[in-house]
Design a protein that fits this description.
Elements (H helix, E strand, L loop, with lengths): L1 H19 L3 E4 L12 H10 L3 E8 L5 E3 L33 H4 L25 H14 L6 E6 L13 H15 L5 E5 L2 H12 L7 E6 L5 H8 L5 E4 L6 H9 L3 E2 L7 H10 L3 E4 L2 H5 L1
Parallel strand pairs: 1-2, 1-9, 2-4, 4-5, 5-6, 6-7, 7-8
Antiparallel strand pairs: 2-3
Helix pairs in contact: 2-4, 5-6
């Protein structure tokens, strides 16, 4: 009887695990809940956990380097000045990365202070890395540990009100990012996402013209307008629709699948939300805690 019970348990577990294995598990900013966000240690930890995709953000420095960072400045929640003092929240935006060379940027620390919003996050010395260095480190780790190929979901952090203030305009921004990616990764392992639809339109225009190799494009969205209006505003059907997880339901997911749009919501950190979204049929999850999904 014990053997039968055990066998049934194994069969039940296998039945649950099979569809979950098809989910694109994306480590948000590496794995922000566990390691300093958007740093090499965070991406390597995400690979160790077993993500399918490394999700990250990129901005541009004064010397036109592609820097992995969510904000185009040093966030006071976790950044430390070169002299060891914490960044003051009142003047954090004055530390504009677009007006700093990368040599200056790498003198700041973004890991030792920790982030009070993520108490499980390990405190360690870390800098904002270059995109090319993240890819180099991740690929070396993957090869060393005989891991399967992973995808890179690269968010181009762009706002139309910040053109030529904390970032380039969409065209030059896309060109700089594309040049870095094309040197190091096959296009089928890259996703380009952005809240700024001008970025996605420019990227598609270059792809259609044969200038850029084809990479998947993901429409990042927030707000309650609905997926149809967002796609209409974008002007073309994206490969992926990526909304805040509370903005979709089982019906809208099915509707997008009927249009051949994959659905990958952000940022899903609670296991009950992960379970519900998987049952509804999402294609992936972006999470600060990929370890919770694996568990």
């Amino acid at each position: 009887m014990r053997f039968l019970s055990f066998t049934l348990l194994v069969m039940a577990t296998a039945a649950v695990a099979q569809p979950v294995s098809k989910i694109d598990l994306e480590g948000h900013r590496g794995c922000r809940g566990l390691m300093p966000e958007n740093t090499v240690p965070a991406f390597l930890k995400a690979l160790e956990i077993g993500v399918n995709t490394l999700e990250m953000d990129v901005v541009i420095s004064k010397d036109r380097q592609v820097v992995v960072s969510h904000e185009p400045y040093f966030n006071a929640d976790f950044s430390t000045l070169p002299n060891g003092e914490p960044v003051n929240k009142k003047n954090q935006k004055e530390l504009n990365l677009y007006e700093m060379t990368y040599t200056a940027i790498e003198r700041y620390d973004v890991g030792l202070q920790g982030n009070a919003n993520y108490p499980e996050q390990q405190k360690l010395k870390a800098v904002k890395p270059l995109l090319r260095d993240v890819i180099k480190a991740a690929e070396a780790y993957r090869t060393q540990h005989k891991l399967p190929p992973v995808a890179y979901n690269i968010e181009i952090k762009s706002e139309d009100g910040e053109y030529n203030r904390s970032q380039p305009e969409p065209g030059p921004f896309c060109e700089l990012v594309y040049a870095q990616i094309a040197e190091q990764l096959p296009p089928d392992r890259v996703i380009i996402q952005s809240f700024d639809f001008a970025i996605l339109r420019y990227w598609k225009q270059k792809t259609d013209a044969g200038v850029f190799k084809r990479m998947r494009l993901s429409a990042l969205v927030e707000g309650l307008r609905g997926w149809e209006k967002h796609v209409a505003e974008l002007g073309f059907t994206p490969d992926i629709y990526s909304p805040h997880f509370r903005l979709i339901n089982q019906t809208s997911i099915a509707e997008m699948h009927a249009k051949n749009i994959r659905v990958v919501p952000w940022t899903v950190n609670q296991t009950e939300d992960m379970n519900r979204l998987v049952k509804w049929g999402v294609d992936g999850l972006i999470t600060d805690y990929p370890n919770r999904f694996i568990r």
